[in-house]
Fold these 2 entries.
Entry 1:
Amino acid sequence: MAFLGLFGKKTEQLVPLRELGLTCDMHSHLIPNADDGSKSLEESVSLIKGMQQLGYKKLIITPHFMTGFYNNTADGVKKKLETLKAELARQSVDVELDVAAEYYIDYDFMHDVSKKPMLTFGGKRLLFECSFTNQHRNFDETVFEMQINGYKPVLAHPERYLYWHNCHSLMQEFHDRGILFQINIMSIIGAYSPSVKKMARWLIENDMCDFLGTDLHNANHLAAIENAMIPAKLFEKLNNGSLLNNSL
Ligand SMILES: [Fe+2]
């Protein structure tokens, strides 16, 4: 619903996003010293307590896996998760934690998908991200490789890839082909850029938002998510039962 505000300008009715009642998040960087997210055990605990205050009960943490930048291994991140869990138990923080990954789509990833067991969530769902500047030359082949190996690809923040901003029918095609879309909460409120916000909202309006993720890296992100307000119309779309977060 739109209202006429001062000087007759249309203003949107806003609703706090937290009223969606999301209890599970499946995209964050809260394993200490695994990537560009949390830098210490203390920081992770503090961010997790903040997430809990927002109503989250289960967090599937997804450290970056990117050859040459974040050389994480499945065993390595699982070990760090255990340390984090032990500290949370010591402080009586009652939250369910699991670890998956945010895989960067490159040649190593394409190779690994058919050779190694990958870190997944919610029944072989595989979170992956792309370059922010150029579409990967073998994007289609890599998605196909994931699918023939039994994985369900989940594209992290599809709204953040600028080279797809004018490609609405391509986005629809990706989604129809079985790629699930995870949109960042911060994109919806314009924390990255107006064009990212526009794309995020377009995807939601056109029923292409399967998961909402925090992509939480630090306390600034937490504050932005905490105060997120969105137009009532968008809220209705997100609240129509199609979001998969709480089924995980
Ligand atoms: Fe991320």
Entry 2:
Amino acid sequence: MRLNMIDTIHANIRWLTSGEPFSEQFHDFYFSTDGGLQETEYVFLQQNNILQRFSDQQQSVVRIGETGFGTGLNFLVTAEQFLKSAHPQCTLEYTSIEKYPLSYQQLQQVMLTFKKNWPQLTQVCDELLMVYSHAFNKKEQKLDVTLFDGRIRLILLIGDATQTLQTLLKMPYQAVDAWYLDGFSPAKNPDMWQDELFNALAKLSHKGTSISTFTSAGRVRRGLIAVGFTIIKVPGLGKKREILSGYFNTSL
Ligand SMILES: C[S@@+](CC[C@H](N)C(=O)[O-])C[C@H]1O[C@@H](n2cnc3c(N)ncnc32)[C@H](O)[C@@H]1O
């Protein structure tokens, strides 16, 4: 029998007739219902130049950090693109933080929608499902697995984003190359957009670390600039007028 992975609060989801998840807890969507995959590609992969990083022969490991794993859509799209386009010596290390993980059954349900809508994700969806509950380390509240012959490492840390980032800072760590900030809208979930979180992101970055998010909220832009990121507003997709994109310049 497959158990739910932890004794914690799982996501509280209402399923739309389209099969897409809506968070009852935050009253917000996990991803755009108006083309989730295209939004992920545009907001996160394109703004962070992920494909260029994957093909850069000088880079043997590409490290991506994410706040808000949710359904794993950003991970799945990134992993699929990695397998398609990365140079053969390149590996991907994807670290994501999630406070309210989907249960195995919820993940199974959303994977059906992903595979139906985007058949190109089938292989990565199946791989994620296979490890999601079985490989979970309950004591450490994390999933740390290598997939696809060791080419992709997924580290999913369960906990509050700010606290978990601060804990990472106390351990030996490698700076992240690209950040995906994906924590529901700042108005609905201010916890994911605090100055302490921005500060930890900066400390886990190197000169040139890129960053992007679907929001264009002024407090997020100002908070990231205050800790040393250069941030610009770029046009969004669909209903989103603007999003934020940038890179880490220097510690202030
Ligand atoms: C917009 S969804 C993420 C979408 C996700 N990247 C995907 O591809 O499905 C935001 C996520 O942030 C998580 N979250 C909310 N508050 C959090 C917190 N304080 N710390 C960590 N994760 C949090 C939610 O449970 C949710 O899964």
